[in-house]
Amino acid sequence: MTEISPATGKTWFMIAGALVVGLALFAAVMAFVVTPLSQAGSLGLSPWVAVCRAFGLSQTPPPTRGGYLVGTTPVSAVVFDRGLIERLAHADRREGARTVAETCAVCHGAEGVSENPAFPSLADQSAAAIYKQLSDYKTNARINPVMSAVVLPLTDARMFNVAAYLAHDNGFAGLGPRWPVPDPEIIALVRDGDPGRTLPACESCHGVNAGGPIETPRLYGQKQAYLLAQLQAYGSGARRNDVYGRMRSVAQKLTPNEMTRLAAYYQGLR
Amino acid sequence: MPAVTEREVVASERRWGLFVAATIAVIFAAIVWSAIAMGLSPPSNGAIIDPKTLHLSREFTEANLGTSVTPDGAVVARIVTAQFQFTPACLVVPAGRPVALRFSSPDVIHGILIQGTNANTMVVPGYISQVTTVFRHAGDLLMPCHEFCGLGHSQMIANVRVVPPADFRPGPDGRVACAHR
Amino acid sequence: MEGWPVLTVRRLTLAHLWVAFATFGLAVILGVWQMWARSPLPAPWHSPANYYLSVTAHGVSMAYVLTTFFIMGFGYFVAETSLQRALPGKTWAWLAFWAGIVGVAMTVASILSGRASVLYTFYPPMTATPWFYIGLVLVVGASWIWCVLMIVAMATWKRENPGRPVPLAMYATVANAVMWLWTTVGVAAELLFQVIPVAFGWTQLIDVGLARTLFSWTLHPIVYFWLLPAYVAFYTLAPRAAGGRLFSDTMGRLSFILFLLYSLPVGLHHLFMDPEHSTGFKFLQMTLTVLVTVPTLLTIFTVPASLEIAGRLRGGKGLFGWIGALPWERPMVLATGLAFFMLWFGGFGGVINMSLAMNAMVHNTSWVTAHFHLIFGGTVVIMYFAIAYEIWPTLQGRAFASTKLLNLQLWLWAIGMMVMTIPWHVLGLGGQWRRVASFNYADPRIAGWGPWVVVSLIGGLILLAAAVLFIVNLASLRRATIDTAPPPFRYAVAVHPPTRVPAILNGFWFWNLCVAALMAAAYGFPILHGLAMHAPGAMAHRMGGG
Fold this sequence. Notes:
The complex is a heterotrimer. Chain B contains 1 helix and 12 strands. By secondary structure, chain B is an alpha+beta fold. In chain B, strands 1, 2, 3, 4, 6, 9 and 12 form a 7-stranded mixed sheet that branches. In chain B, strands 5-11-10 form a 3-stranded mixed sheet, with no helix packed on it. Chain B is elongated and about 80 Å long.
């Protein structure tokens, strides 16, 4: 390109612009007219619907609607949404402290640190986890004669208060890491899971930085007997308030021996 | 200076330009033809659903998941992909019949493929992903989650049990589930 | 011409390139360990948490740190050597460097804390600590300063040299800067308006479909941002290194313009298997994706034609005789040959990926991993090596005593890359899925993959050897004898050097208008429709405690 006159320079812009626009138009016609229309027949769509569908303005209908879907009680009615997180954040923790002292302390220990191996410690548990269980007792998604009676008089607001109070760092020796139990097989299960059984690592949900399901409880420092009882209840199907059966499925893949050792591992040594 | 005149340079550029245009046209034609001839339909159904209340939704509540046959004979499988498990984790489908697979996620992004088939879709929270496929042979196929969904991603694998049409027997409620082994 | 011919960006360029290559070295080690972890052989420190931490660090290092710092450093060098004029605004350049360093430090600390294992592609609603994202925003912000400096350098030169064509190397570098400004709009919008507010806990919900759309805006052109320095080398360094001339300056300009135009409105091809986009827009962007192969096809004509000139000048005869006559002992020539070889494989894989129908067979399988490692490692990084070998003597004022070890390093890298990615292609077609920390080799449907994964691990080890040798090669130059007067750095001259080029090939305003129009057509409706549809948001899943 040695010499190009200014006139040809202008023509360049015209040609380039026409090419860019022309190719884009061609692509658009292929995308929104030619292809949808030629597919309309095999998909059983009218031409108009086919074009609308190409723009995303008409959905592919589901195969059929209704009829065979059964109406059942969901396993848990709790909905983790923005409202729930905000209510937990703005809960009245002083009122929560009063309720804990009056209602919970008898079994779960003063300030939520349990002395009885059958009852879980609650201090430093995740607020979302505590609220979900309280609410599930209330809706009978989780069944326990004592707890069902205990939550009966509690309003939603008070359950939020209790959960927020217990979860807040109160300086008690609540849940949290202890001296680890030296059990290499169980540590492998906790850290790595078992690909052979498609068993995810416990820590992939229960770990501190896991980013797993919001309702996941903290396990370190929890009562061994309580943990074992829950694993067994999930395994037998006696407890079924885990959404989409994720703990039921895990527990069914564990051996009784592993359940016992896992419970011991998570309680930890003092 | 090599013995190439500017005229020759421009001419060879033009020849190559035509060759490029022809190549592009062939590639494009092949793709368009495959799209139309194979009745291709990527998972673009665009149906939305609230992931936060998915477990309360009519379609994706726990009891309605799995394979079912509708009164008009269509086979539909509904699967929830959640950290870190498919529900159900085992799916029964018939060989040789179109099966509509409908997925949704209550938490984060997942994705699925079924080995040896063209069933492949992302599962994006907020949307229902639908793919339709015909399973050719009976056998057990892996259906792994193929998109990073958290630390348990590697263990998120389901089994698709393709059974011969004769062995595909829905119950009175139109539902089929894997037998417990 | 104050300051020139003394290279005034010597320390600036070296600082950027050393940050790039040090990060690269660490990322290679992580990559090898990841292959080991996925293989049937027992790997140390293996746990899902460590694996995803490593994948995040590997991806962030390679995709954001190596590339951005290399491109910035090389850009400053090109601006000064091609325009033969001191770089304006060096204070800003150093400011950008340190902003980038602070960003990298924040990001690395976040990843090491285990609170950012969300991979370099983020995957909201998974949410890392906010400092991870803010660190990356700082790195991108630093690159924006670089973009402005490149544009200013070209504009200043044009003012001082009215009517003269901008040297091709600089024109291409500015094309990349302009493209990068467009590219980062998507990810910046995703991070600033969606992800970071959630990461700080100010909001809880993310529209995941919109986040994916915005990220896809960035995800394709970012690859061309990494790639264009390699193309700068193909056009302006390789022909000169081979002893020939650039076949056509115009073809070069046209290629870089086409990259700017068609790398941007095509990102939806990463979302072919997504439910939130309609078939029509997927098809539209697929068609535009076909067009982005045009500049590559132009390049595989022009660059070999340029090398042919060199081969024939050196006495090569016949249809292919010129190939043997090329000076393959020169690293830039060797790297160009190897890069073209791997670009062919990677490009073929890419054509499969972009086909709407065939994509369903390979989406999120190891096929895709193989494709982008071939493009990134095989074409981009090998040319970064060659560029470093080419410019290091000028930067250090010392010459390599021998190119033997340099060529050995390039061969090792290419062989390692092929040994690693051929198994991945095979495994991908067999349905091996992505981002997995460990496979259950006891499953008969998976057991057969074991040997292939081990082969790819061997490829990884070869790559590690190549990476170590690269650092050794560069470091060895510090011990070489000082050249009293290193020859001035020169770029390839065209067969018919342009004395004037049409304005359309000497600036970018017209092409920016075209990009704006194409982006409006390709992304305008999908984004607006997505906003109007108001898809229900997903709750943040926080890595780092509720």
